[in-house]
Specification:
By secondary structure, the chain is mainly alpha-helical. Helix content is about 40%, strand content about 5%. InterPro entries: ABC_transporter-like_ATP-bd, P-loop_NTPase, Type_1_exporter.
């Protein structure tokens, strides 16, 4: 990666440099805030909100939910649609701000305009 042999890199360092958003994001039976912040537990509420905005989660979903970011998602996110779960996973990765992002059909449940918005935000978060 960038002309560096990954065999010479510590595993923790490599994991910190990579963010993966799978098609079916794993969510915990906790709040939306907790599930986004999971990638970087020291993140401020403002940073979590910014990541949620980039993922198209803030306005379209979180503000529509009665408890906002404190809404519990249920076991494995059962209270969210597939697209909502994907956006939580994308927000989680944006918050982590890794140097390498792998999207494994991470936007398959999203409409085209939301997908394009997220792709632009992910690119900007990687490039700084």
């Amino acid at each position: 990666i960038d002309d560096q042999n990954i065999r010479n890199v510590q595993q923790k360092s490599l994991r910190n440099a990579i963010g993966v958003v799978p098609q079916d994001t794993v969510l915990f039976n906790n709040t939306i805030l907790y599930n986004i912040r999971y990638s970087r537990p020291t993140a401020s509420d403002g940073e979590v909100i910014e990541a949620a905005q980039c993922a198209g989660l803030h306005d379209s979903i979180v503000n529509a939910m009665p408890q906002g970011y404190d809404t519990r998602v249920g076991e494995r996110g059962v209270r969210l649609s597939g697209g909502e779960k994907q956006r939580v996973g994308i927000a989680r990765t944006i918050l982590k701000a890794p140097a390498i992002v792998l999207l494994d059909e991470a936007t398959s449940a999203l409409d085209t305009s939301t997908e394009r918005h997220i792709q632009v935000c992910v690119c900007f978060s990687i490039l700084g």
